[in-house]
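Build the 3D complex.
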Amino acid sequence: MNWLSSFDELSRYRLRLTAERSDLRPTLTVCMSTGCTASGSPEVLRALMEAQRKLGAEGRFAIKRTGCHGFCERGPLVVLRPHGLLYQQVEEKDAEAIVASIIDGVRPVERLLYQDPATGVRVTREEQIPFYQKQTRLLLANNGHIDPTDIGDYVAVGGYSALEKVLSSMKPEQVIDAVKRAGLRGRGGAGFPTGRKWELCRSAEGWPKYVICNADEGDPGAFMDRSLLEANPHSVLEGLLIGAYAIGAEEGYFYIRNEYPLALRHVRTAIQQASESGLLGENILGSGLNFTVKVCRGGGAFVCGEETALIASVEGRLGEPRPRPPYPVERGLWGKPTDINNVKSWASVPLIINNGPEWFASIGTEHSKGTMIFSLVGKVRNTGLVEVPMGITLRRLIFDIGGGPPPGRAFKAVQAGGPSGGCLPASLLDLQVDYEQLAAAGSMMGSGGMVVMDDRTCMVNVAKYFLTFTADESCGKCVPCREGTKEMLAILTDITEGRGSNGELEKLEEIAHWVKDTALCGLGQTAPNPVLTTLRYFRDEYVAHTEQHKCPAGVCRALIRYYIEESECPGCGLCRLNCPSTAIKGDKQKPHAIDDAKCERCGVCVELCKFGAIKVE
Amino acid sequence: MTEGVAEAQIRRILDRYQGDRAAIVAVLQDVQEALGYLPQEALVEVAVQTGVPLSQLYSLATFYRAFSLKPRGKCQISVCQGTACHVRGGRLLLEKLERDLGIKAGETTGDGLFGLETVYCAGACALAPLMVIGGEYQGRMNPIKLDKIIAKYKKGAIDELVVEFR
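Done.
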């Protein structure tokens, strides 16, 4: 590794790398993130390398592993650069065709190109795909371009130039001022102004001071922090370094979920390479800044995303929150001033320094600046990570970028902000997504989860799902959260199982408000949001459960019945063979029937039936 | 597991952290990784070697989801119950596994081959519903694909046994 002892050496290193890499030799990038790996990208990578050898094309083009593009739905993704040709859902058997097409003077392999479902037209270039076209990719800009395990790749695209600028020409106060003027707010969900947090930590008494990157992404339905750490770990590390300088901290931590093995590996590699290059350790780039960073693995407790619980966990204690104040910026890790920011907040910092606070502040709305990464998942055609300016409408996000719900289904709700957020109905599709507007609608930014639900999703069941989660993850320290979530869950269970009455709804609402007002930490205070928002926007659906004992979406088992529509059943037998309770009878090639007494409503038959012959009522 | 083996293994793990008492969660994570779970003897050994009270270790081991006091499967299956998986049939997937393996989430099959657990979001929501089996992510699951995967792992286990037997 190159040891960089001064700003000059860093600049020379970057110039050399840029020169080395500026030749226009084509490069095939293969996405090796968790999503594409699950879809088979390691096999594709191997096949591509083999095909390259077999066709004698070594030296004609390079093959590179990259991190997450965000378009996981279409993985494995292979992109030919600099052409920007995106091949999707690539399989091993496609490798030779791809390699041959490069040797022949780069002719796209038509069948692997993305096909616009609306027009049927094949789209050649990555940036022309509607999913990408309507995004503003700043934090994710280099995902899919650089090899996350090679610090040189990051430096070559301008990495660590913000650190250089800060250390060579800015005082800590000026850095804080820049972050304040940029208007950056905490991307972990609550939206506290980042610059203000830094300032409070800098001015707090006590030494040493600590900075922590909160990568305990526990929100079910969100994976942008994983993606950033996997695909571009140095961008987060650079932000952390700049923050350490501004605050006056010499030690930092990455607190990473144990469920993210690849992110852990890439962050560790990044730290090692930065240490070996002189970008971590003592007297960084000759500036006099000392900074080291350690990695902490989470233990699988949702509550550890709360900053006081996170600190307890880093100290080797139970991850239970404590009352604030004192805030961690005054008394945090080991009782010392500690600044904790989310992965995306840290990664935004180099962008602010490089492009200027005014540039950053020009993106977004009056009080919410910059971009936000949402994980657009659930019942939507294009699932994946999307980065958009703050203030985009839900409609643009879900329909223009996400392509709307799957064919034949209707949009019903979107759960924004994970278990702490709320379910928003179709009437709010024109809501501008920023901290204030989401809060006004009873939801919150949270970590940016956007789970889309269609007409086959039961909102009472969804509320029950979230309460199952929060009741399970409640650390048990304070009574309102520990008991309140359990009580709400019991009522919701009664309703979904046909035992609810209208009086229960008022009781549910009362408990929800009580927990919201009295729980100890942010997690408990926001746990009732899914209940309150579903009650507010989908009360009819609750009433259908309690009064008519019906589940309009056909989800709640105690309230539904499956049957086979004779005219639509060709008698293929797939359902009969797979029914776990042997409730389906019928002769081959003849319509089948479900024995209602034996049916356990598991739904396996509905999922398997290729003819849509199994109905629910 | 004999006690001598655990003792040496635990000493090696503790050496990595050089007496850093804050690293106790990491120590337990490493022990769990090495032994597959946290047996009582291992917790006692960690307590003896670090001076951290056994009661505290027990409370950590039961607080964090990552730890298990019972042996886990040779092949551990984590079924994602995150929001995206939930709306795309994650519960059906879990129920089918419970039926097919004859165990509930949190349990291990009698032959020790499969362990079943749930996770709230494995972070690959675009591929919902999904599970992680033997460290491998398997996305866009359906009942037929599940049967194939389980059969593959069962066959793998039998092949391994045959090799051991020879």
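Chain B touches chain A through 46 residues (CB under 8 Å).
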